[in-house]
Amino acid sequence: MKPRLNIVTIGVTNLKKSCEFYRKALGWETAKGSYDQIAFYNQSGIIFALYPLDKLAKDAEIPADRSRFSGVTLAINLESIEAVDQLYKQVIENGGKSLVEPRKTFWGGYDCYFADPDGHSWEIAWAPFWKFDDNGNLIL
């Protein structure tokens, strides 16, 4: 199979509240196909989706219990330290919970972490060795 990742779906407890958070905190607008049971966001080649947690757990046939760290973080990689600081501030002002304030990293970059209204962990990061294409996609 050719390597690919098409959709990342996270379970949320209140779809309307989560959609509002992503719109205000990150400026993301829902994409075609979204309706009152699921929200899609175009992410330059990958679709990010929000779906009710109980329905997602039922579909995957696993318990909906989220009492501990899932071992997954989502990341937004940016072109500068200033962009990391600006987005972090915007996210926190719009209901994101600070997990780690902006800091220099052990690997030579700069990052921070926040949680969305459902506790999903997000990293905002910059590194001097990252390059981006014209669409903002990270080039490794």
Notable characteristics:
single chain, 140 residues, three-stranded mixed β-sheet, 3 helices, globular
Structural overview:
The protein is an alpha/beta fold and 140 residues long. Helix content is 24%, strand content 33%. It has three helices and nine strands. The protein has helices at residues 15-26, 53-60, 81-93; strands at residues 7-12, 39-43, 46-52, 74-77, 97-104, 110-115, 121-126, 131-132, 138-139. A four-stranded mixed β-sheet has the order 4-7-6-5, covered by helices on one side. A three-stranded mixed β-sheet has the order 1-3-2.
Which secondary structure elements does this structure contain, and how are they paired or packed?
Layout: E1 7-12, H1 15-26, E2 39-43, E3 46-52, H2 53-60, E4 74-77, H3 81-93, E5 97-104, E6 110-115, E7 121-126, E8 131-132, E9 138-139
Parallel strand pairs: 1-3, 4-7
Antiparallel strand pairs: 2-3, 5-6, 6-7, 8-9
From N to C, what is the helix and strand string? EHEEHEHEEEEE
**Low-pLDDT sequence parts:** none
Shape: globular
- Can you summarize the main beta sheet? 4 strands, mixed
What Rg is obtained from the alpha carbons, in whole angstroms? 16 Å
Structural class: alpha/beta
Q: Could you tell me the mean pLDDT?
A: 92
Spatial strand order of the main sheet:
4-7-6-5
Helix count?
A: 3
What helical percentage do the residues reach?
10-25%
